Amino acid sequence: MKLMSLNKIIGIVIIIGQWSMVNGQTLNPKTTPACGGYFSAGGKSLSWTMGETFNTTLVNGTKMLTQGNQQPYIFLKLLNLKMFIEGFYMGGGQMQAVLYNNNLNASPAACDSVTVELHNAFSPYSIFTSVNVLLHTDGSADVRFPISVSSNSYYVAVRHRNAIETWSKNPVRFSDAVAIFDLTSP
């Protein structure tokens, strides 16, 4: 009888352990492609990611369904980001081309990727949206957000794998104009 109850207890512990491992995992929907880009001219835009598996886009009238890393926004709001990462900075307003030098990006101006988050302007300052972008060797990055950020103000937070997370001092307003977030000026 004692052996049977011990086996039941061990079985329950194993089941609970496996359940907690499965439910303890989270999925991160963000991706950082090694190579790709975005081009816009004349009201039309083209975005691409190299190394992505073939995906299908289905269109029916005004409805569009896409699969994969590239999820289109019909309208975008732009944030011009300017920052330098101390460990990559060489002086003269230039950083090392880390991604290019490690054969992870075809562009000689590819420094590294950063995550840009927009946090609500009021407590508890939860994340409204975030995107991963390519930071260029001159410290610039064009960050594109969905149109839903229009006419609102958000704290901008920048994260990098090897730098201190940095927030804007005040909320940044996203209006009809391009928003600017410059971490290089005093």
How many runs of DSSP E, i.e. beta strands? 14
Please indicate the percent range of residues in DSSP E strands (runs of 2 or more).
Answer: 35-45%
**Class computed from helices, strands and strand pairing:** mainly beta
Number of helices: 2
How far the N terminus sits from the C terminus, by CA atoms, comes to 75 Å
The profile of the biggest β sheet is:
5 strands, antiparallel
* CATH fold-level label of the largest domain: Immunoglobulin-like
- Note poorly predicted spans: 23-30
The level of helicity is 10-25%
The outline comes out as: extended
Order of helices and strands: HEEEEEEEHEEEEEEE
Summarize the structure.
With 186 residues, the protein is mainly β.
Attribute tags:
186 residues, mainly beta, Immunoglobulin-like, 2 domains, 3-stranded mixed beta sheet, 2 helices, 14 strands
Structure explained in plain terms:
This protein has 186 residues and is mostly beta strands. The protein folds into two domains: 35-67, no CATH class; 73-182, Immunoglobulin-like. 14% of the residues lie in helices and 41% in strands. It has two helices and 14 strands. The longest helix has 22 residues, at 2-23. The chain is extended and about 70 Å long. Residues 23-30 have low confidence and may be disordered.
